[in-house]
Write a structure and sequence with these properties.
homodimer, mainly alpha, 3-stranded antiparallel β-sheet, 6 helices, DNA-binding, transcription (chains A, B), WH-like_DNA-bd_sf (chains A, B)
Chain lengths: 150, 150
DNA sequence: ATCAAAAGTGGACATTGTCCACTAAATGAT
DNA sequence: ATCATTTAGTGGACAATGTCCACTTTTGAT
């Protein structure tokens, strides 16, 4: 891999990091902290969740996660359901209020994407989309190789 | 923009955010906090800097920036040079130690990129690179339009 | 039955980030 | 030239975020 390509990739990473930072800062207008939003989204997309799964998938400290969950429960957005098989874990689910809030978060996120890219003509948009798919495909390949070699 | 495309873009954003998070967590083994590293990189790439420029470009609170700079100065990585034209500002420059440290940061970042993508065959790598360039090009277009319309 | 590992919790603490008020210098209007 | 306004930077006080460690309960393996 030559110098120029590395520089380009890093440039892209910085640029994209900034863009996502802007997006996230808008999402945060919804009253969640960044981490709370991640937790809500993860649970919303993947219900029910187990705290420890979230710890792994979101890379958050165990005890911190415990507090985040406690807070979200106290806010009436989540509840814990006892697991039948393993009494150490609780199954985390969204309450109705939590679902509404998640839906709102989701809507705002969609809206933000639309606003961000609305100025791109359809063809340009499709090219960008294709480029994103291409990159994800490469990341998939990398992960598959990692599975082989580790 | 249809639902599926929005979902794909958001999926890409999440995925890429995670990847960058992993990259960053490795960069942070170098003793800097994430924000300190950003500041060092920005100054290293763009010397001399003015604190207020950094506040804008990195989106960091003024007073927080002031403290970060004070810390980096205390660590012997930065120094302030009085500006001739405007006596309110100082020009921030890397000391020799700062340059060495920046170089180290830079080397590690390059190394990380290489490691991350080393399993991709050259042709795949080139495709990914092209896809990144394509996306940046679209972001450029958006920014140019914003300039027009704002 | 015993023991190591896993899930979760809480205390204590460190780091990181934010808000506000303030000073000093520069800029602009009159 | 003077004075109000804006800009760059600083510090105090504080809030939010994240980390480390010790501990309890439960599970699973031997």
């Amino acid at each position: 891999m030559d110098k120029a390509m590395i520089a380009d990739i890093r440039h892209f990473n910085r640029r994209y990091t900034n863009m996502i930072g802007v997006l996230n800062s808008h999402v945060l207008d919804s009253g969640y902290s960044f981490t709370e939003a991640r937790v809500m989204i993860e649970i919303g997309m993947n219900e029910p969740c187990i705290a420890n799964m979230l710890v792994d998938s979101l890379n958050i400290d165990r005890s911190y996660m415990s507090r985040i969950i406690r807070r979200l429960v106290k806010l009436g957005l989540l509840y814990k359901e006892a697991s039948a098989e393993d009494q150490r874990v609780s199954l985390l689910r969204l309450t109705d209020a939590g679902k509404a809030s998640y839906q709102d978060l989701d809507d705002r996120s969609n809206e933000l994407i639309i606003r961000l890219f609305r100025a791109l003509p359809p063809h340009e948009l499709e090219e960008m989309h294709a480029a994103m798919q291409k990159i994800e495909q490469k990341l998939d390949q990398l992960e598959r190789r990692d599975d082989d070699t580790i």
